[in-house]
């Protein structure tokens, strides 16, 4: 079981919904569990279980709330995700779109063969790669000019 360090307090203590889990209890089929910890000015989100149409509906809103917090972006740990279909990938793509609209980033830091294969087949690996250092400045400037709404 991973314990958040004192420097990276868990958001669960702040009242996050019960599907945010920090233990290794088996999840029922079709369910996903999420745990969140702060890492500097970013938040690390670990997703485990199965990310599909049903579980994605439950996670989409909560991931949006995580992104809306005082952070420069989200670092995803998907290494414990057993299954992800195209509906699950859409949850991740929507999270990325919302992040871009807020001048933030979503980076897949840890993955597994299931996620790697899905992203490779769709040519989407680079969408979740670490951006170059000047990226945040470019996105913020572009959004200010375009006047796009936040998620």
SSE topology:
Layout: E1 32-39, E2 42-51, H1 53-68, E3 73-84, H2 86-101, E4 105-110, H3 113-122, H4 135-146
What does this structure look like?
By secondary structure, the chain is α/β, with parallel strands linked by helices. It is built from 4 helices and 4 strands; from the N terminus they run ββαβαβαα. Strands 1-2-3-4 form a 4-stranded mixed beta sheet, sandwiched between helices. The chain is globular, with a radius of gyration of 15 Å.
| Rg from Cα | 15 Å
Element string (H = helix, E = strand): EEHEHEHH
Which percent range describes the beta-strand content?
Answer: 15-25%
How far apart the termini lie comes to: 33 Å
* Beta strand count: 4
Unreliable segments (pLDDT under 50, ≥5 consecutive)?
1-21, 138-150
Based on the structure, what is the oligomeric state of the protein chains? single chain
Query: Total helix count?
Result: 4
Please describe the biggest sheet, giving its number of strands, its sense, and whether it closes into a barrel. 4 strands, mixed
**Helical amount:** 25-40%
Give the class from helix and strand content and strand pairing: alpha/beta
């Amino acid at each position: 079981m991973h314990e958040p360090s004192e420097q990276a307090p868990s958001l669960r203590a702040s009242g996050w919904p019960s599907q945010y889990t920090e233990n290794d209890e088996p999840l029922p089929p079709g369910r996903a569990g999420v745990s969140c910890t702060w890492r500097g000015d970013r938040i690390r989100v670990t997703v485990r279980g199965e990310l599909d149409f049903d579980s994605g509906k439950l996670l989409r809103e909560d991931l949006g709330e995580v992104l809306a917090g005082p952070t420069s972006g989200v670092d995803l740990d998907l290494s414990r995700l057993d299954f992800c279909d195209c509906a699950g990938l859409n949850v991740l793509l929507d999270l990325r779109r919302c992040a871009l609209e807020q001048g933030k980033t979503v980076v897949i830091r840890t993955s597994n063969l299931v996620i790697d294969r899905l992203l490779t087949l769709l040519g989407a690996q680079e969408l979740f790669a670490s951006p170059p250092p000047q990226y945040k400045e470019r996105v913020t400037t572009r959004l200010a000019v375009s006047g796009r709404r936040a998620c």
